[in-house]
Every structure is written in structure tokens, then in C-alpha cells.
């Protein structure tokens, strides 16, 4: 991974690579366009998306909020749309594609800029939480 402005882009596979989150979190359009170039119709295209946070925005009774709570809710909404922008853009432009699974963790994810890295223990904890989320999502999907 390469953060623009912090590290140089990576050159590989005859392309220049940097973190996609500098534009939007998930480029859902690229695989749809790739499938179209291979000759697949939208109806035959199935997309699964893994987000860095929940794909759901809970309803809030904001009429009872003070200024601080409104500020916090504003940040929640901004983070939600930042996370979902690529998905919403793809759905608007390609409505016949099957967006089969759009999932993400049901908790805030830790992030670090400095130091840039995670300990082995931190990574193992995140893997276990990811496996738990996957099991819960699979169970909920079966119950639908």
C-alpha cells in the first residue's frame, strides 16, 4: 500500500499503484467495467463488496440532540457516505448488476498513521473479529 504524499507510488504489473481510498474507499465500478469488456451483461455480473465499516446507517432521534451530539452525528453520516460512495455510484450507474453481498465490520475499526503498522497480536485480533463478522453475516443471510 502506498499513501500519496507520504510514500511514492508502487510500480508493478505495468501500472502505478497507490491506495484507492485517496479517491473513494471501494472502486466498485472497475470490476463491472472489466466484466462488460469481457462480454458479460449487467444481469450476469455479481459483485461482493467488503467495506472498512458498517454498510448500515442507524436511524437516530436527532431532534433531541445538543450541538455536540449533532456534530458527532454529522461525522457518522460523513463517514458512512465516504465509505459507501463507490457502492452508491456503481448502483446508480449499473442498476441491473447483482450486488450480492455488501458487508463490513459492525464496530469501529482501529487505524494507525504513526506508527504505520500493527503488531502481530493486533493483526491476529483483527483477523478473529473479521471471522466473527463473516460468521454472523452468513447466519443472518441464511435467516432472511
Describe this structure in words.
The structure is a single chain. By secondary structure, the protein is an alpha+beta fold. The protein folds into two domains: 25-109, no CATH class; 110-144. 42% of the residues lie in helices and 12% in strands. The chain has three helices and four strands, in the order ββαβαβα. The protein has helices spanning 29-37, 67-93, 120-143; strands at residues 10-12, 15-17, 46-50, 98-103. The protein has a two-stranded antiparallel sheet with strand order 1-2. A two-stranded parallel ribbon has the order 3-4. The longest helix is centred in the middle third of the chain and has 27 residues, at 67-93. It is globular, with a radius of gyration of 18 Å. The model has no long low-confidence stretch (mean pLDDT 82).
Give me some keywords for this one.
two-stranded antiparallel ribbon; 3 helices; alpha+beta; 2 domains
List the helices and strands and how they pair.
Layout: E1 10-12, E2 15-17, H1 29-37, E3 46-50, H2 67-93, E4 98-103, H3 120-143
Parallel strand pairs: 3-4
Antiparallel strand pairs: 1-2
Radius of gyration: 18 Å
Quaternary structure of the protein: single chain
Structural class: alpha+beta
Total strand segments: 4
How many helices? 3
Residues in helices, as a percent range: 40-55%
What's the order of the H and E elements?
A: EEHEHEH
Instruction: Give the end-to-end Cα distance, rounded to a whole number of Å.
Output: 37 Å
Question: Tell me about the biggest sheet?
Answer: 2 strands, antiparallel
Instruction: Report strand order across the widest sheet.
Output: 1-2
Amino acid at each position: 500500500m502506498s499513501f500519496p504524499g507520504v510514500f511514492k507510488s508502487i510500480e508493478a504489473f505495468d501500472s502505478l499503484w497507490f491506495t484507492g481510498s485517496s479517491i473513494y474507499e471501494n472502486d466498485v465500478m472497475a470490476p463491472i467495467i472489466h466484466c462488460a469488456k469481457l462480454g458479460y451483461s449487467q444481469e450476469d455480473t455479481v459483485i461482493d463488496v467488503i467495506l472498512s465499516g458498517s454498510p448500515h446507517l442507524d436511524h437516530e432521534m436527532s431532534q433531541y440532540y445538543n450541538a455536540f451530539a449533532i456534530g458527532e452525528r454529522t461525522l457518522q453520516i460523513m463517514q458512512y457516505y465516504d465509505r459507501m460512495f463507490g457502492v452508491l455510484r456503481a448502483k446508480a450507474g449499473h442498476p441491473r448488476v447483482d450486488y450480492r453481498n455488501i458487508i463490513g465490520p459492525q464496530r469501529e475499526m482501529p487505524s494507525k498513521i504513526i506508527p504505520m503498522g500493527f503488531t502481530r497480536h493486533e493483526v491476529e485480533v483483527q483477523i478473529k473479529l473479521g471471522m466473527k463478522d463473516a460468521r454472523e453475516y452468513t447466519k443472518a443471510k441464511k435467516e432472511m
